[in-house]
Write a structure and sequence with these properties.
The complex is a heterodimer of chains A (149) and B (465).
Chain A (H helix, E strand, L loop, with lengths): L1 H11 L4 E6 L7 H12 L3 E4 L6 H11 L3 E6 L4 H5 L2 H7 L6 E6 L8 H10 L4 E3 L5 H11 L4
Chain B lengths: L2 E7 L3 E8 L4 E9 L6 H16 L6 E6 L6 E5 L3 H14 L3 E6 L5 H10 L3 E4 L9 H11 L6 E4 L3 H13 L3 E4 L13 H18 L3 H6 L5 E2 H14 L10 E6 L4 E6 L9 E3 L7 E6 L8 H11 L1 H8 L3 H13 L13 H19 L2 E7 L2 E7 L8 E5 L1 H4 L4 H5 L18 E5 L4 H8 L3 H11 E3 L1
Parallel strand pairs in B: 1-4, 4-10, 5-6, 5-7, 7-8, 8-9, 11-17, 13-16, 17-18
Antiparallel strand pairs in B: 1-2, 2-3, 11-12, 12-14, 15-16, 18-19
Helix pairs in contact in B: 2-6, 4-5, 8-15, 15-16
Classes of the chains: A alpha/beta (149), B alpha/beta (465).
Chain lengths: 149, 465
């Protein structure tokens, strides 16, 4: 109940918009649906682009939707190549304050997550999540990063 | 006999078609110069007199009219991202029958404000931002547009949270302003019908009068509509069918005019290959595009510029013409836009046909969707933008440059898929038809009252080439 009241309160004020999608040629749709559901339930305004989303689509959707965050999923191991340059494209489009979150099976093979995280942080992402992360963690981070209470 | 009098006030000619509803036949046709600068009734009466000479004095059951006179319905549209709200606003304006002179994206600049003043549109369609999304662009562009020193109406069809604010700014600047639903309320979702209705209302309320058509409007039995809207409605009827009469299924039509080339497609446009998916906007079944830089007279030099940018030597070789001869014909047409490639100018008919063929090819590639090949772990896939028109069964050509050409097929076949535009999803094996009696617009008008009759007339008068 308390949680519900919180959501209603948040909807009174304007909700931050998240742009959500699975990047590149990746067709993993189930996780995307779960994230869409959880973030929407948490009171965010979600623009879900679904699967096989190009960087261009992420950026254009974020511009039209005036998004506060872009949340990128990648499950098929090509995450590093697919995500490279997204921060620069956002800068170019004037989205200088936008937060970039990324999560999933971001690289092929067994690599230390700290190493993977480092690579993506250097690419300009603000939060990086390993496979099997609970979306609750990301929701907590969103509230912190967007200074919501 | 029950005779309907269908009039198309064109920029040059007022064309009047008389149709007998009972026999479903065109019984008379006449044309006279459009006299919109003085009194549009003069030209109309002259054409009517000729109809009377052919049919005798008779009572008309109904009189209906469409108009593209005095520049047609001239519009400018604007949005935020070129492939999203800017494209949606252009589609909305084109589907209302407007001549969309220019589409702007992102924040308008001072330079663009001067450009809009020079275009002097009848209506500006302002969009940008999905609902709940970007507000800044709508408010910024409203500021710029409010200060444009030209008299036009503005339709706001953008982010609904910013629409009222934008309207205030525009009204303060003295612009007649209408708010309607967003052309793209959610990402990738097209919603063009409310904007289309708002354009229609403004056209009837303000623009008919501004163009000097109000006296004519009073004697008509239905509001005057923009000619391209009449053609769009005729195409839709021809494709979908009437109450009892069957339609032709998926089709495309080209109207090759002096100033613009209009392209219509009536097709769902969904992917026709299994490994393709649509990216971006899903476009409407009834789609119209209008190319202001592709035309046979007023925009002939712009068309030639496009050819020169592309591959001029291949162009001359393909049609067996020379650069000198092409330039000569361009000069002749620039001096006298009414000139036809016959009589003393018959020698230039090959150049005129070559330009017409390129006009069809360029406007076809812009209208049709295209596929981009991408390689995925699951193999080769296609990302489809726009409509897949490969299975379209009929392509109809209209406009003097096509139907009066020595070889109309050679011109119209540029609407068919060719390796030259490798990725364009143009029809693969369509039948090519010609609107020999120039009845498209008239049948669009008639379709509002007698769909089956209009459909039967079109099916009988279109000739395969």
């Amino acid at each position: 109940m308390e949680e519900m009241a919180k959501i209603e309160d948040m909807q009174e004020i304007e909700q931050p918009t998240l742009v959500l999608g699975v990047i590149g040629a990746d067709v993993h749709a189930v996780g995307n649906k779960i994230l869409n559901y959880t973030f929407t339930q948490a009171g965010f305004n979600v623009t879900n682009l679904g699967v096989m989303v190009s960087q261009k689509e992420f950026v254009e959707a974020a511009v039209e939707a005036d998004a506060a965050v872009i949340i990128v999923s990648s499950m098929y191991g090509h995450g590093e190549i697919d995500c490279k340059g997204l921060r620069e494209k956002c800068d170019e489009a004037g989205l200088t304050d936008i937060l970039l979150y990324v999560g999933g099976n971001l690289v092929v093979g067994k690599q230390e997550f700290t190493q993977v995280e480092k690579v993506f942080l250097e690419m300009g992402f603000n939060r990086v999540y390993p496979p099997g992360s609970d979306p609750k963690g990301a929701i907590e981070h969103l509230r912190q990063d967007l200074a919501l209470n | 006999m029950k005779i309907y009098l269908l009039t198309d006030f064109g920029s040059t000619y007022t064309k009047v078609t008389a149709v007998d509803i009972e026999s479903a036949k065109i019984v008379a046709f006449a044309k006279a110069f459009t006299t919109i600068e003085t009194d549009v009734n003069l030209g109309f009466d002259a054409a009517k007199k000729e109809i009377a000479a052919q049919l005798g004095q008779i009572e008309f059951e109904k009189c209906l009219a469409a108009s593209s006179a005095a520049g047609g319905l001239k519009m400018v549209s604007s949005g935020l991202v070129p492939d999203l709200t800017a494209k949606a606003s252009r589609l909305a304006a084109a589907s209302a029958g407007a001549k969309v002179v220019k589409t702007y994206s992102y924040e308008l600049t001072e330079f663009e404000s001067e450009e809009i003043a020079a275009i002097a549109p009848d209506i500006l369609l302002l969009s940008g931002g999905i609902d709940g999304g970007n507000k800044k662009v709508l408010l910024h562009n409203a500021e710029i547009i409010a200060s444009v020193p030209a008299n036009f109406s503005v339709i706001i069809a953008g982010n609904r949270s910013a629409a009222a604010g934008a309207a205030q700014i525009l009204q303060r600047g003295g612009k007649n302003t209408v708010i309607c639903e967003n052309v793209m309320p959610a990402f990738g979702k097209l919603n063009i019908l409310p904007a289309k209705a708002a354009i229609r209302d403004l056209f009837i309320e303000n623009i008919i009068t501004a163009k000097g058509l109000d006296a004519i409007a009073e004697i008509m039995d239905m509001e005057i509509i923009p000619t391209p809207l009449a053609v769009l409605e005729a195409c839709e009827l021809l494709s979908r069918g009437g109450d009892t009469e069957e339609g032709l299924g998926e089709l495309m039509a080209y109207d090759l005019g002096g100033a613009t080339t209009d392209v219509y497609s009536m097709a769902d446009g969904n992917p026709k290959v299994p490994n393709a998916f649509i990216s971006g906007i899903t476009e409407p079944f009834a789609k119209r595009t209008v190319e202001g830089d592709v035309g046979m007279r007023y925009s002939q030099s712009a068309l030639y510029d496009l050819i020169l940018e592309d591959n001029p030597s291949a162009f001359y070789a393909e049609y067996g013409i020379s650069a000198e001869k092409t330039s000569q014909w361009l000069e002749i047409c620039a001096a006298e836009p009414g000139v036809l490639p016959m009589g003393e100018y018959e020698d230039y008919s090959d150049v005129d046909s070559a330009l017409a063929a390129e006009a069809i090819r360029i406007s076809a590639a812009r209208h049709a969707g295209y596929n981009e090949k991408i390689y995925t772990p699951a193999g080769e896939m296609f990302s489809q933008s726009g409509k897949d028109l490969t299975q379209v069964r009929y392509v109809i050509g209209s406009g003097g440059a096509v139907i009066n050409a020595a070889n109309p097929r050679a011109i119209l076949q540029n609407a068919i898929y060719s390796p030259k535009d490798l990725n364009a999803l143009k029809p693969l094996r369509p039948k090519l038809l010609l609107d020999m009696e120039n009845c498209f617009a008239a049948m669009g008008l008639l379709s509002r009252f007698h769909g089956d009759v209009a459909l039967r007339i079109m099916k009988n008068s279109f000739q395969e080439v």
